[in-house]
Amino acid sequence: MKHLFTLFLILTLVCNTVSAQQTQEKYINEIKYLLYLPENYKQNDQQKFPLVLFLHGSGERGDDVNKVAVNGLPKMIAQGKKFPFIVISPQVPNGEGWEPTDLFRLLKDIKAKYRIDEDRLYLTGLSMGGYGCWEMAMKYPQMFAAIVPICGGGDTSKVWKIRHTPIWVFHGGKDNIVPLKSSQDMVDALKPINPDVKFTIFPNDGHDSWTSAYNTDSLYTWLMGIKRYKYAKIAVDQKILDTYQGTYHNDLTNDTLKISVTTGIVTLIRKKGATELKPYANDKFFINENDPVDAVFSGRKRKMQILVNADRQYIYKRIGD
To answer: Please, is 222 exposed, middle or buried when counting C-beta atoms within 10 Å of its C-beta (0-12, 13-18, 19+)?
Structure first.
């Protein structure tokens, strides 16, 4: 995708009809997409709706957005399927792949134009779109309430970023295009930190496991029951809090921080200033309810360390242990 953005973005709207339910739209940086609005969208101008972003496979790339409707959710919509959520199905030009930053800008534009429930944004994709689904979610872990990657894969070293995201993975057992291992590796990497990740293998499906996946009725019930993760503070025993107090050092970045504990309050102090850590488990703390940054303590009183999950993972060992 071309990165041709100026300070003043011009939106061009193309209103060619694809079907009774989907219209052709065009985004500011030449991203064409199919738009589906639920039947009751116009009945109440105050109601906000969930949104599903659908990412197609490599075979649907090009400059004819109608091609996007040959598989997946847009195909089902074109055939008359009705959904209770908005569906945005963008198209990638020939020879290109999914760019998370462009999709982020597209969603920003969509949210400005339509009544979107931002706590109920969902992401799914198949094949190349399955890879794009994983990449997009790990690039913007605070954005999506849940993701559904189908016959895709990704960078297992980054799955910690979506440790709080509900995920349902699908793959065909006989896929000879994208090996089953590609999904299996992602699921295996997620399990220790996101134990509720769901993985469905269709043993007799080849590469086209998306038909089976999108015809799984329970998928939509599952999706619609999920809202974007927010941290929730709990009370932690003062004796437990006291064990975290001390000075910690990161050998990799040569950074030092101090954990100070007062009555019920844990404070992280570094050169930038002091930040209150709020517990969501006995050994896990967050900063802001909508921010995917947290700190995880491990070890015992004599061998304590803290893992800070921010733009990357930083391990600090307590000095003197």
So the answer is: middle
Q: And the tokens for 55?
A: 């990412």
Query: For the chain, what is the largest distance between any 2 Cα atoms, rounded to a whole number of angstroms?
Result: 69
Q: Is 253 left (phi over 0), alpha (psi -120 to 50) or beta?
A: alpha
Taking only the tens place, the pLDDT of each residue in 205-258 is: 999 999 999 999 999 999 999 999 999 999 999 999 999 999 999 988 889 999
- Distance in angstroms (rounded) separating the CA atoms of residues 160 and 191: 10
* DSSP letters for 96-158: ----HHHHHHHHHHHHHHS-EEEEEEEEEEETHHHHHHHHHHHHSTTT-SEEEEES----GGG
Which residue is it, tokens 């220790």? Answer: 192
Rounded distance between C-alpha atoms, residue 54 and residue 72, angstroms: 8
What pTM value is reported for the model? 0.88
Cα–Cα distance for residue pair 221/225, rounded to 1 Å: 6
Nearest to 227 by CA among 169, 281, 284, 165: 165
